[in-house]
What we know:
Elements: H1 5-15, H2 24-27, E1 41-44, E2 47-48, E3 51-53, E4 56-65, E5 71-79, E6 84-92, E7 97-105, E8 113-118, E9 129-135, H3 141-144, E10 151-155, E11 158-165, E12 167-171, E13 174-178, E14 180-189, E15 196-199, E16 206-207, E17 210-216, E18 229-238, E19 244-248, E20 252-254
Parallel strand pairs: 2-9
Antiparallel strand pairs: 1-4, 3-4, 4-7, 5-6, 5-8, 8-9, 10-11, 11-17, 12-13, 14-15, 14-16, 14-18, 18-19, 18-20
Amino acid sequence: PALGPRQVHSLMLQAARPLEGRSALRQGAGVVGAPSPEAALVFDPPIVTPTPRGGGSLVAVDIRNLGDAAGRYTVRLRTRGGEVRRLDRIDLAPGEEAEIRARVATTPQAARGSIEVVAPSSGGVEGRVAARALVEPPRPPEARDALGLPEVTVRSGLAEVRLRLGRREREGARVRSVEVSGLRLWLLPSGGERPLAVLGAKMAADWPAGTYRFLLAERLADGAEVPAGRYRLRASAVGPDGERVVTTSAAFDLGSSEQGG
């Protein structure tokens, strides 16, 4: 009952089980789980965001001991690429808090991974990871806005989709273009049934920035007919930072003669 929201957030993130093959931007910390009764260390902030500083990137996080036992811990960074870098060694008595401030990589993106707090080793064997916090750099603005919302118009039972891919912006006398690749489109039935693939199952091509128009055929990519019903259209593409961006349209009806959008 004495825990604050950020401490509960930290314990919940640590108890989550990561999904293999999915980026942290798509799954967060993973599948939710119940925190262990032995969990005693929490992070503030619960998710650490590296910031550019002095030609590198800096992480700043506080670690608090909520347990009843003191401990000496090693704090390290484990990047997505498998690199492990020691950041500090701390002593934490019950109720104490330690500040970790360290330069960890040349760029915030290179620091993506996790901060691990390792318990003391025993008999020459490396100690267990007592606590872990996600390290996630902020997404660049052009990556967050690399894919527009699908606009679907239905006439006489046929659907037309307008979708902005990438961005083209003028910076002074120069034109800057942000492109996406690997476009995929799905129909999402309103009843929660399996998504229906429309486009992109075997397409990894780059798409120049612009607004595109697609017509949804009466048959899917696998040749099956599209059942009449209420749907949303989901679009997915790989942005300039290498992560997938996903957007979803408003609901619309297919298979009727009524006009909608």
